[in-house]
Amino acid sequence: MxxxxxxxxxxxxxxxLRVVEFAGLGPAPFACMLLSDMGADVITIDRPAxxxxxxxxxxGRGRTVVLADLKxxxxxxxxxxxxxxxxxxxxGFRPGVMERLGLGPDxxxxxxxxxxxxRMTGWGQHGPLAQAAGHDINYIALTGALHAIGPAGGxxxxxxxxxxxYGGGSLYxxxxxxxxxxxxxxxxxxxxxxxxxxxxxxxxxSLFATSAMRGTFREERGTNALDGGAPYYGSxxxxxxxxxxxxxxxxxxxxxxxxxxxxxPALRDAQHDRARWPALRAEFERLFRTRSRDEWTALFxxxxxxxxxxxxxxxxxxxxxxxxxxxxxxxxxxxxPAPAPRxxxxxxxxxxxxxxxATPAAEVLARxx
Length: 369
Description:
Number of helices: 15
Radius of gyration: 24 Å
Structural class: alpha/beta
Distance between the termini: 23 Å
Helix content: 25-40%
Order of helices and strands: EHEEHEHHEHHHEHHEEHHHEHHEEH
Strand order of the largest sheet: 3-2-1-4-5-6
């Protein structure tokens, strides 16, 4: 049986919050995972043909799933009944889809004026591209972020889908939902939160927009301090074919790196001398190849040189720091990231794995009464 999680059983600062999520892909489900981890009672509306029970679906954890054919008037009415009692709605369809289903903001807010209606899209609810298909790489391409990432002289490199979907998407959606909920407690009124990935990534690029206006950011990949251009901020191959990364931006940290690494004294004042960056990079490359990744990790342990091993995903949970913080937990045999951030008084917890089976809408309504 799929456990039923009631607000009384939930733990976290959002315990008691009622969320209805319309099933989708990418940033909206991740946002709802965060809400669930923080205690919200998240009900996912999915298609009748949906196959459930995938324990490896980490972003689907901690949900109750209700199957509904949204084109069927009876099923739609059941969903509207849930929304009448909900605090938050999250959907990630193209603009206009929810309206055509009779579940748009006008209809839903008429029944539940205090509802916060979250809309997660790539392009936003209006604009020339609002109806166009797209993915993370397309969204970040319009913001300057993709152009800035990659090696000097090479093509832009997609940073997984972390910058767009999850950074500019999920996290901005969660911030928007929580802000709107806070405001609704004062006003008694809900509102629509239009969370567009392009908007979020534009916001994430604020530091670099500032640097560009100040003349300290070049629109050439691999030539800036934080894009791999600076030899003191990047990754280096080690003697065993793995990598370490370094990031000693502050001069005292750079000095400690040079001392422990054994950098040629003639290059120890070259940190900000672009003319000598190639020589400094070559020195770092030569030295880091003289030992294995783990040997370098041990040598720099406890220092302020800002050196860390570059771990594969399969290695991350075993690192001593991760272990000490219990940053990974097991849920029914599946190792996965623990909830974040951490709360001192109302700790979050994972409310269970992805649902094994569906729950009738009537059962959810009974527990929400």
